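In this supplementary section we document a worked example of the pipeline. Step one takes a protein sequence of length 322 as its only input; no multiple sequence alignment statistics are reported here. Step two produces a three-dimensional model, which step three serialises into C-alpha cells for compact storage. The input and output of this example are shown verbatim.
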Amino acid sequence: MKRLLPMLVLLLLAEPVQALCSVVQAGNVAFGSVASTTLASTVQSSSSTNAGLRCSGSLVTLLRSDDFFKATFTPTGGTTGLVGPTGDVIQYTLYADNTTSYPITRGQPFDFARNGILDALGILGNVVPATIPVYLRTLTGSNVAAGNYSETFTVFWNWDYCYGIGVGGLCVGRQTLTGSTTMTVTLTVTADCQITTPAINFGSAPVVSGFSTVSQSVSLNCTKGSAYTVGLNDGLYVSGGRRRMKSPANNYLAYDIFKSAGTVRWGSLTSARRSGSDADINPGNGTGTGSQVFNYNARVYTDQATPPAGAYQDSVILDVAF
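The serialised model returned by step three reads:
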C-alpha cells in the first residue's frame, strides 16, 4: 500500500488540463460612417473581438517557448487597403492589441503567443471559451471620394500548443492544427466641405446711398469628386424678397448678396443656388485638396428711406447640398 501513493500522485499530475482551440468564422470590422475631412485629419479606430480562433479550457502555466499561435491576414483582392467605388484606397494598419506596439503585416505570419499578448488577454487561462481580438487604425492623409470602402482577408491560423502539463513541467499533449476563415473590413466615407466665410461689413454712412458695395468671396474645399451646390438663406429678417439687418431699436436696413460681380441674387432654392461648376476659381466637382472660390458682392438698397442711426446686424446661413 505504501508504494501506491506515489504512483497515484504521479497519475494525477500527468492528467492533461486541456485548452483546445479551433478556427471559427471571424467577426467583420466596421469603421462606420466618417466624413472625408475627418478621415483625412484624424485616425479612425475599430476592432473585432474575434479574429477567427476560439479557445476553451484552462491553462495552469504560461505559454512554453515552443508554443505558437500564428495568424496570416492575406487580402483577397489585388489592392492593399480599403477600396472604394472609384478605385480610391484608404490605408490602415492591423494590430495585435489595443496599442500600436504590435502591428500586423499583411501576408506575413504574426505569432500571438509571443510578446505576452495571449497571456495578457487571458485567452488560454480562461475556463470560459474566448476568441482572439484584432485592432485596426486608419492612416491620416487620405483624399478619397465618398462611398463604401472595403477589404476582405483570408485569415490562416497555424498553431502548435502544449495543452497538457505533467510532472516536472513536461508536455504530455500537444494540439497542432491549421485552419482558415475570412474577415471583411468596411468604412463609409460621407461627403463634406471645409468652408471659409468672412463677415460682411458695410462700415458706416450717414445715408443709404453712402454705403459702398462689399466685394469678397466664400471658399470651399469639398470631398474629392463630389458634385454640390451652395445656398445662402434669407437671413433673420427678410421682407419683400430682400434681406434686412436689424438694429436694437427694431429698425431695419435692407441689403442683399449677389452672385459674383453681377445682380443675380444668391439664394437657397433651386436656381438661386450656385453649383461647383459655377465657382469663379477652380470650377467643377470637389477636389479634396484645393479651394473652390465663389465671389459675391453685397449692397445696401438705395431705394429705401434712411433708417435711424444705430448698429444693424443680420445672420445668413450658408449650406452645401450634395
